[in-house]
Amino acid sequence: MRRLWVRIMLIAGLVGAAAPPAARAAATGDRMLAGTGEAGFRSFAAASRGPQQTGEAERASAAPAADTILSPKAGALKMDEEAQALYERVLEGDLTKAQAGIDEISRLFLAGSFKGLTSVEGVQAFSGAITDVKDALAAVQIQPDRLEAAAARLRFAADSLAHPRAPLWSQSYKLMAEDLRNLEKSAAAGDGEGWDRAVSSIQSRYSHIRAAVLISRGPSEVNAFESWLRQAANPGNGGERPERAQLLQMVSYGRDALRTLFGKEKDEPALSLPLPERTLGGWGWLAWGFIAAALIYTAWRKYRGGQKAWRPR
Prior knowledge:
Elements: H1 4-15, H2 21-32, H3 41-48, H4 56-61, H5 72-92, H6 95-111, H7 120-138, H8 144-162, H9 173-189, H10 192-216, H11 219-233, H12 244-262, H13 281-309
Helix pairs in contact: 1-2, 1-3, 5-6, 5-8, 6-7, 7-8, 7-10, 8-10, 9-10, 9-12, 10-11, 11-12
Pfam families: Spore_YpjB
Protein name: Sporulation protein
Keywords: Membrane, Signal, Transmembrane, Transmembrane helix
């Protein structure tokens, strides 16, 4: 079930690959959250590919000769196309074509240049994503889940390299923000199991996009988020779980780290749940009753005044 959101994001990304960055991001986000059934994903993927695609992706799609030296951007676009096709072949179970695809990506990687595209850490992350797919394909007994996860990580990474202004991985922000809200609710309710489930969900989502994040973001943003995630996974450092207020403060730090990682503005309060749980008691309810009665009476007076003002003479 957790892989479902990955399939939606990556398959939806096929349609928007040739669109301008802003439109591409919007289209991908809409499809990611549309809740399309898993049964329709593969036919959707097949329908989304075709000769009608234009722009940079189409120009890069012509297979270059083995000795052709591509520009950094053209090489990134070609690897993105190959990673996209590789992911489709993995979903279809076509291991022969999947192996040919990863071999071509490896060749392009070794022959290419990443100047101006990413950092040293980004290059290492991309190399690691390639290695993960190779290892999954070379296993004595193929594990479909492992292979699909590795192909998804490579797909996100290649897309991040080719489309830095609107990478597919950035569309997972809403899902991870929702995980943080669940984390906050668990902290407020003292639900330790709920906390662990929410952290596990964040870890799972992040593991799919980590290589892509390293390609797009600087070490400081990545380290800040990963440090928080490690702390959230072990909030008591092996001892007793911290108190409610401390856990809620930890969620606040995590929300800020997530916003920074995704380049989002701080457009909502750090904590959306109240720290103290208060009960009104008898006098409290009585006071609220007087306030409500006063408001109702004031509204009635205004209504009556308005009626008199408009009464015909």
